[in-house]
Write a structure and sequence with these properties.
6-stranded antiparallel sheet, 3-stranded antiparallel sheet, 131 residues, binds fe (iii) ion, 2 helices, Metal Binding Protein, Guanine Nucleotide Exchange Factor, Chain A
Length: 131
């Protein structure tokens, strides 16, 4: 269960139209367009909606997909996973465990040791650079 609950109107005020469409309406940014697709800056990626710490740059890798890709989450309780049968595919949706934001999907074709590829929309993330 998510800890932060905002009304649709509150999210619309807090987020950009793109962030709202992706995070609150389960949209997807076009590949190779997001600001973090090829970002190599060290730091922690926070949820763009609520600031929950989600991913570390240490786990980021270039999957070639055009979306920020991570081998693993920052901590096991950072995200929640749900079965997503939309668009004629069976995928696993990844959501912020704190506010329920749609982040992206996780696939089982990632590199070792996890074998996972967290495919995440840049618009759902806010990088907090390492100091
Ligand atoms: Fe969140």
């Amino acid at each position: 269960m998510t800890k932060i609950t905002c009304s649709e109107e509150q999210w619309r005020q807090k987020l950009t139209p793109e962030q709202f469409a992706i995070c609150r309406e389960k949209g997807t940014e076009p590949p190779f367009t997001g600001k973090y697709a090829s970002c190599k800056t060290r730091g922690i990626y926070l949820c763009a909606c609520c600031g929950n710490a989600l991913f570390s740059s240490e786990q980021k890798y270039d999957s070639g997909s055009g979306w920020p890709s991570f081998r693993d989450v920052l901590s096991a309780d950072s995200v929640t996973r749900e079965v997503d049968n939309s668009h004629g595919m069976q995928r696993t949706e990844v959501l912020c465990s704190n506010c329920g934001a749609h982040l992206g999907h996780v696939f089982e074709d990632g590199p070792e040791p996890t074998g996972l590829r967290y495919c995440i929309n840049s618009a759902a993330l806010e990088l907090q650079p390492e100091r």
